[in-house]
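Contributing new records

If you add data, match the layout below exactly. Sequence lines come first and carry their own label; structure lines follow with theirs. Keep one chain per record. Anything else will be rejected by the validation script.
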Amino acid sequence: MRQAARWKLERGSLLGLLEQLMGSMTVLGAISTQLAMRSFNILGLCLFLVWALSPLGAQSVLRIMSADLRENASLVALAHFDTNNAGVMSANISYWQAKSPAPDNLYFTALLTASTTRSSTSDFWGNVKLPLIGELDQQDSAGNTSGWREIQNYTLVKTYPSLLGIPVSGLSRVGNTTFNINSSYFDVDCRTVANDSGSGVWPSRVNYTAYKFFTYLNPSNNGTELNSNSNSMEKYSAPIIRWISPNYSPSNYRGVTYADYIVHEQFVEVAVNCECPDIGASSSRGDCFASAVRLQRRTSPRSQSIFSNIHLFDQFATALKSATPVTHPGTPTFMEQYMASPNGTVGEEVPATDLFRLSKEVFSQRLMHLINTFYIARLGPIIMTGDFPWTSENAAYGYLSSAPIKSISGVFTQRDTIPTCTMNWGWWSMFLFASLFMVGASVVSFTLASRTLNPDILGYISTFTRDNPQLYHIASVSSAVSGLERARAMGDVSIRFGDVRSDDHTKGELGIGETKWTSRSESSRYYQ
């Protein structure tokens, strides 16, 4: 800036332009000078842009290179327990007639899990739970345009259809995997929960040793009971089921609780996210949770299910009743204990259990847990508690012939453990431009200095002594010397900016003179 101002001064220039150049020696000066002189012109803008290269050039050095942990995505082959394809198996009456200790124990273990596990996104073994889409519909009946309900957009999911989740095989022990599964669950809609003395609705059930939990009702015959001895194989799209259980007290029998409900099978598509951050994890299932859910686009319901007809349902109900250990006669069964209070009484003998006091919503939720948990436990006991080696060869030889398995693909994303250095070409361009500009400015400054004949007097205090009448008595210094040379020659001279006409009592004059002849200026004195 100095050399440019010196060059312009030698050739003649506007005073304002020279002051702009000399005042813009710093970033702050480039701004304050324009504001003070009110000189908002092209030169002022150029000076500001030139000084802006200083911080930008410094930052560009720090931002040219960056080290990041990259994420690599790839397709992986997975397999999951498929409730959609379990219809043929579950519709086999002999399948429910067989005594199966392993799935029964699995079912009973699920009933004993802690409340935190029952409300978590996965079960005790890390299997992902299906969200209850009806609960989300109460918060948002539409979802987005594609029908997806984003789980994070809703309040905490309070309940799940089953205490057991859907096992998935093929997950990596480190990294994240996202995939979609098609599955289903039974949704219970309780219409009536009431108390009966035993002489009205169920006169044949007053003896607690004779009742059965579930009874298939005939919707076309005023709700009368159907039994498995009926020759009718009529199928109902939404059959009415009746729960019947006695009410208990320590000394006497106090009637029965009965509840009529309808079971709907919900077919859903669930988006699942599995996070496995620990390389040394003992299980590759990781932390799986459902991130979104929507209804499947099905043109027709399943042709076979456990609620298809009275014969199939009666065997399922019998198997469900006998799945838990036998309690003492006259005390609630484990199923009744769970229905009454799943958080603290399951596994204990509680003498009083009056289920008719439950609301229809609570009754529906807890009964839904029992039905879906037992259903999943019976269909997939060998794959529920551990990883299953799913391959096409194993399927061909019947390795998993007793469990419905479906192959799917997922997206596996893994973050690198070693940082990858990347070049930011934008900041690199800024660094290159700032560096070249500095070199160019140095060349221009040297060129202007060499082409200027006059001495450099701009910006020096000694310049104020040139042609100063107040300092005429001091030995004169050549006018051809620069400001720095004049300062060296007059280094011992004391000067002051003050009143150079202190002997005039009417008015003073401000100027630079020798200290001993120049008095300090006063606020009460008039200066011309």
